[in-house]
Structures are given as structure tokens and as C-alpha cells.
Amino acid sequence: MATLTAAPRNTLKIKIQRVKTAYLAKRIDKGVPSGKTHEYTFKSDGNRTKTKKQKEKIAGIIFKNEKKKGNLNGTDKRTSLAEIISTFEQEKYNKGDCINISLLKSEVSFEKQKTANLGDELYVVIQTENMPDRKIKMNLKQGDKKVLADVQTAIFVTEEGSDTANNLFTATVGEFAKKNKETIINASDFTDYAIAKITLKSTNEEDNKKYAKALKATKDKKAKLYIAMDAEPADNDWASVKYEEIFDNRPNLWYYGSGNWFEVNENRLYKKGDKGDVVREINIRLAGFGGNVPSVDFTKRTEKTVIQFQEDYMKIEPTGEVDKKTLKAIDEFSHKYPISFDQIKCDCGKCTGFGNGKFSSEKQKKTILEKNRKYEYPGIHRSIIYGLKGVLFYLDNTEKTLNYSFNKISSGYRCHIDNKQNDRASTNHMGKALDIHFNKDGKRTRKVSDIEDIRSKIFKKYLGAKFDWKAGQKNIFNLESTKVGATSWVHFDVREFDIEYLMNNFFIKKMKDKKIQDISN
Ligand SMILES: [Zn+2]
Ligand SMILES: [Zn+2]
Questions:
Q1: How far is Cα 196 from Cα 177, in angstroms, rounded to an integer?
Q2: Can you give the pLDDT at residue 4?
Q3: Which of 334, 440, 456, 346 shows the shortest CA–CA distance to 387?
Q4: Proximal ligand: closest to the CA of 430
Q5: What stretches of 337-445 show up as alpha helix (H) in DSSP?
Q6: Ligand of minimum distance to the alpha carbon of 429
Q7: pLDDT band at 1 (very low <50, low <70, confident <90, very high)
Q8: 22-36, 371-385, 452-466: which range is least confident on average?
Q9: What three-state secondary structure class fits 244?
Q10: DSSP calls for 19-55
């Protein structure tokens, strides 16, 4: 007879499954040393790295070249310019010299958000306990009143760039940690997290337009949303999951209730293909960053000016798209470099300061070449004003080491009376041109070589300006060369702009520009 022995009693391990919190967040990547380095060998002699400026310059070249090859920046590398600068120990590097650049890896954190713009990319971060591999389903739903959708109805979102079925998106506990094991240094911190990457838009442009319109129609330009979640196991055992943040007696809702909604604001992003008054202002106000015409279209050229502005002025990784931050920076830039209209006014002592509108019959007449047009435009062209602001910025910052600075506008508006007083006939200066004096080492320079230097190292390089109105130089800033007559000053103009960009409304007598942020609102 077999002897029966009692089996050891089951230890009851009750593991309560919890969703501790859930929120919408921005991902922040910080570069931390990975322990690996990248060896860089100099390919030429005389790389000076004594001053801060020299260091930045050489590091910039290395960064650009190596980034292209994916050696410093890529999915698993986050080495920055600062890291390269920190490796310079000598004052000069020659061909064959080596430096070891520390390779950085991402350390990720998620910053909780209470608001976002339509079209923004966001992460839904869910912290759990005792729920490994659980697939969690979610909606983003319309809160207190109908805006994007009916109340308590899910809005469209895209997940990882694709549409979601029935506006439902998912995240699996532990997946983010597993997927990013190689690329993120602290991936294991997220073992108990389910993380979904979503974008607050549909892949259907019609839906997006509908959303934008609905937001615009509201008084506060906001839609209030909340997260609804289903974190139950496949057998739908409700009681097995405990949701820890409870609002309004609804266990599985986040951002729910008065004062606690997730607010989605109108998307005020401008990008290639867009059209309108704000785009026109971008084209005017960023003319000093590559040159542009005051068109209502966000063109490839607009994108290039935005990139140049973001790189040079904002010093950020450029996107070529104008978001709130960029709008704010445009306002800051405009404010920082004021231009004196007293220096621009006509000297004749008889006209309004900006002519008398003489020869208005020639205005917008397509049969007259601009160089022959006698019309006195009603002010100075705005693209020139902003072009000059760009020049002031570059002299003062990027090209500070050239030691040139702005002296004054020596000649701005010159009406027909002024022309007669001075025995000249050119009509360029009837609102379309400025003559400028510059300092070298703080003192006005009249040296031809200095002026030619400024033309090529500032106007040509950063404003895309060309010389002497040659064939094909339409819709860009033109410079008068030394041999044509501008010896000790820089003359630049918008004479070669198409007639549609020389309409009265582009000419101003004083600075009265509203903030671009306000125009955009
Ligand atoms: Zn005058
Ligand atoms: Zn001139």
C-alpha cells in the first residue's frame, strides 16, 4: 500500500495587478557616456583649437562630417558638439593627429504634459505592477463638451505613424524596455511600463482639417480630452486589476473631470505647402536668412530660410517648420535689431520723407522695367528692412570675429526732388534700396577691400545676394559692385523682385509690425 504524504501547502501568492498611473508625456533624451569612443583622425594640417571660437568651428566640421556617416549620431548614439569640443587638448591639430570622441547613449525620461497642440507627437506612459506583457487598450476621448468629437467619444490618433482601428490604440507592458535594450541606457527602468507613441491627428487630411476648424471655432481654441483604459487580462476579469488614480468614481479614466482635462490646442505649425498671411510674414521676416520674396506660399525656399534661422539664430536642430517656439524667436529677433527710419527718410526736405507718390501711373505696370520705373513707392520695402536685421545679427554673432559692425544707413529714400538736387536719375532708392556704412574695429571703414569682404562674407553668404542685377537674378537681393560704383558703402536692393512683390502694401514709413505670434493667433 502506497504511503500518502501530504503535499506542502500552497503558498498563496496574491499579486495584485495595478495600473499605478497613466499620463501623456514628452520624451526627453539625454546623452550619457556609453563607455565607447570613436577615433577621429585629422585629414589636414593647421586645425587651430586654441580659442573657444576656433574649437567650435573645428568641432562643427567634425560633427557634420561624422554625423553624415552615422558615427556620432544615430539610433543608439547621441554625441553632441559639446562632447567633441571637450576632447580638444592641444591648441592645434595636424594631419594624422587623433582624438577619441566619447560616444553617448540616450538616457530617456518622460515629462508629463497637461497640454499639446493638434498634430503633436506624444507618449502615453502607463506605470503598472504585476502585469508583465499585458496588452493595454486605450482611447483618447472628448471631455466636457463637443469639439473634436461628441462628448465621451474617441478622437482620431495615429500610433507609430499608422491609423488606429476604431480610434483604439495599445501598449504592452515591458515592450518599450525590451525593444530599446540596445539603444537606451536606462531601458530597464521601464520594465513595468506600457508606453505608446501616438500623434494627435488622423492620417486622413480631411479629418485633420475638420479638427483644426472645430478648434478654431471654439472660444478658447481648446478641446478637453481624457484617457479611457482597458487593462484587463484576456479573460476580461474586471476585478483583477486595480486602477490607482481614481477620479469622479471612474476607475480607469485619466485626466478626467473639471480642472483635470488634457487640453489640446489649435495647431499653429506652418510648413511646406502652407499658404496665408502668417506665411507671408515668415517670408518677409526671415529674408535676412537666405533671402526671400513676400509670397503667401511656404515654399522650398521658405523652408531653407527657416532652417538657416533655426540653425544660426535659434541654435537648435532645424526642422524647417515654424512652430510656436520659432514664431517666438522670430519676434525676439525682430525686436533685437531695430532699424532707424530717421536714417532711411529722404533728405530733400520737401517730400513726405518717402516721396509724394509721383508717377503713380507707372505703378504695377508690367511693360516698364523696374530699373526704369519712376514711381515713388510709399515707403521702404519690408524685405529690405528685415534683410538688414539679418545682416546686423550675423555681424554681431556668427561673424563677430570679422570685427565689422554696422555704422549707419547712409542713404535710404531718394525722391525725384532729391534726385534733382543731387543731379542723379536712378530710381532704385525710391523705396527699393539702402546704402550702408560699416565699421572695422569700431571705426567707419572706407576701404574697398573691407566693403567687398562684407558683401561676400555677409550679404552673399547669408542673404543669398548677387551682384549687379544680371540676367536670371530675379527675386533675390542685388548688390552694387565696386566697379559699378559702390566703393565705400554697401548698396543692396529688391529691384529684381517680381512686380507682385513690389505692391504698395510691402512699403512702410515706420515700423509698426505686430508680433507674428499675435498674427498667428
Ligand atoms: Zn524727398
Ligand atoms: Zn544705393
A1: 12
A2: 66
A3: 334
A4: 1
A5: 341-344, 382-396, 416-421
A6: 2
A7: very low
A8: 22-36
A9: coil
A10: EEEEEEEEEEEEEEEEEEEEEEE--SS-EE-SSHHHH
- Taking alpha carbons only, the member of 227, 285, 215, 288 closest to residue 255 is 227
The single residue listed with the C-alpha cell 487630411 is: 205
Distance from Cα 387 to the centre of ligand 2, integer Å = 15
CA of 419 to the centre of ligand 1 (A): 8
Distance 467 CA to ligand 2 centre (A): 13
Grid cell at residue 21:
498611473
Which residues are in the CB-under-5-Å shell of ion ligand 2? Answer: 433, 435, 491
**Residue 483 alpha carbon to ligand 2 centre in Å:** 13
CA angle 137, 140, 143 (to 5 degrees): 135
pTM beyond cutoff 0.85: no
Q: Which of 228-242, 368-382, 479-493 has the lowest mean pLDDT?
A: 228-242
Residue 417 main-chain phi, psi, to 5 deg:
-65, -45
Ligand 1 centroid – CA 351 distance (Å): 4
Q: Which ligand is nearest to the CA of 478?
A: 2
Q: For residue 190, count other CB atoms closer than 10 A to its CB.
A: 22
| Ligand number with the minimum distance to the CA of 485 | 2
Tell me: the pLDDT tens digits for 48-86? Answer: 999 988 998 999 999 988 888 888 877 677 888 888 999
